[in-house]
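Dear support,

We are seeing what looks like truncated structure output for some complexes. This example has three components. We would appreciate it if you could run it in full and send us the complete token output so we can diff it against ours.
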Amino acid sequence: MKSRRPSCTDSGSVSSEVDPQSPEKYETSTKRRMAANARERKRMEGLNTAFDRLRKVVPQWGEDKTLSKYETLQMALSYILALNRILTDPRRHNAPQRQWRDLQLDCVQPENYACLRRYDSPAEQDYISSFSYQFDGHQLHA
DNA sequence: TAGGCCATCTGGTCCT
DNA sequence: AGGACCAGATGGCCTA
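Here is the complete output from our reference environment:
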């Protein structure tokens, strides 16, 4: 993970509500704020770890393209609906020999991805066109 | 250079 | 009181 900005709070900038006449209060408040910042960084780190784990289990566009957080959530939603569809699809029982992978690709609808970004390369177009199944009764809300 | 994405800081709110 | 969570603000990095 890249560290963007050197922490200004870690150097001790704390705000306005502090009484300049009371160094002890100022120090206490500064320490509290720094601790809160550290906790927040830790919390966001956990959140980003969760996003990374999610990215590993949803379909990716390619090794060189990392899904943004928003894209990851949209992809996860669509993927879950697709898997749910697979589990409830009656064709599953009629054609047990069908390859799981084929059905999986078949069950993700392209319009769920179209809003995410533009895909210009032939490889990406091919990948998108493989998601051809139309849901009935499932509606995604943007 | 503008726009998208992101990390970080910060203050507010809620909960224990 | 202190921690967790959240949303707004800010500024850096990257790409078209």
